[in-house]
Amino acid sequence: MNLVKFNGRSCETYRRYFDAYLDNELLVETNQDVLEHLESCADCTRLIESRVRIKQLVKNAVAAEEAPAVLAEQLRHRFRARPGFFSRDTVRWMIAAAAVLALAIGGVETLRWGYVIGVSQPAGVVETVSARVQELLRVGLVDHVHCAIVLERWKRFISFEEMKADSTRSALGPEFIDLVPAVQARLGPYFKMVQGHRCTANHRQYIHLILTGDKGAIVSLVITEKRGESFAQADAVAVINASGLPIYRDRQGILEIAGFESDKYLAYVVSNLNHDSNLNVASTIAPLVYSHLHRLEV
Questions:
Q1: Counting beta carbons within 10 angstroms of the beta carbon of residue 155, is it exposed (0 to 12), middle (13 to 18) or buried (19 or more)?
Q2: pTM of this prediction?
C-alpha cells in the first residue's frame, strides 16, 4: 500500500497513480484524495473509465486461457524484473495476455527469440513519456488489442478485391480503400496485408489495416478522428521526424506504439516489433498516410 501526498494537485500528478488506485494499492487517505479529484474532474473520470474498460477487455479475453507452466514462468520473470512498473494484479493478467499472444503467433519458441515478449526499454524512455502522451497513444493501442489480437483478425486474410467490393458498415469505403495497396507497396515484401476495415472499440470508431511479417510480427495501422486531442497539446516530444512529420512513441506492456497526426486525425502503428523496427515501419508509411488524410481534410 502506498501513501502519497498530492501537493500541486494537478491532473498529471493524480494520473500517475490511477493504476495503483484501480488495483487497490493506495492507502485510505490517498485513495480518498483520488476519489475527491475524480468527483471534480470530468477528464480524469473519462480517462480512468477508459483504463477500466481496457483492463476488463484483456482480462475477459484471457480468462479461459491457461499458459503452459514453462511459458508462464518465463513471462512472470520478465514482468517482475521491473519492480514497481507493474502492480501485482496487473502482472497476473498481463502474464495471461502475453501468453495468449505468444502462443497465438509463435508458440513457446517465441520467447526464446526474445522477440515478442520483452518489457525492457531504452534507458530513460519510460521516465520521459508523460502520462498525457501515454493516454493519447493508448487510443491506438485499444483497437489493436481488441481487433487484431482478441478478435484474431490478423488470421483472416481478405483480398483487396473483396475489401473493395465490400458494402457493409465495416467497409473502408472510397475514402480509405486506396490506403491498402499504397501501404503494401510502401512496405514491400517484408509485410503482407491481411485486411482493412472499419471497426469500433471502446466506443470509438477506427480505420484499421492489419499486416503480418516475419517471426510472427503483427502490425496495425490505426486511424481515428480526433476528439479534441493532439500530441502538440500534450506537450509531446517527437522521437523521430519522417519527412518533417513528428512521430511519437511508447512501449506499453508487450507492444510498441508509434503515433502521428494530421489536423483532424490521429494515426498509429502498433505492433509486437522491437523499438527500432516499429519506428521504421511508422516512419516509412507516415508521410504517405499523412498525405492521404490531408487530402480528405481539404
A1: middle
A2: 0.64
Using a 10 angstrom Cβ sphere, with 0-12 exposed, 13-18 middle and 19 or more buried, the burial of residue 166 is middle
For the stretch 8-51, pLDDT in tens is: 557 777 877 887 788 777 888 888 888 888 888 888 888 888 77
DSSP β-bridge partners for residue 17: none
Domains defined for the chain, CATH in brackets: 11-113 (no CATH), 125-297 (3.30.200.100)
Alpha-carbon distance of 99 to 231, in angstroms, equals 32
For residue 26, how many other CB atoms are within 10 A of its CB? 19
Tens-place pLDDT, residues 100-110: 455 444 443 34
In this structure, the chain runs to a length of 298
Cell of 9: 494537485
- For 270, residues 6+ apart whose C-beta sits below 8 A from its C-beta are 140, 141, 144, 219, 220, 222, 255, 256, 257, 258, 278
Handedness of CA 23, 226, 280, 237 (dihedral sign): negative
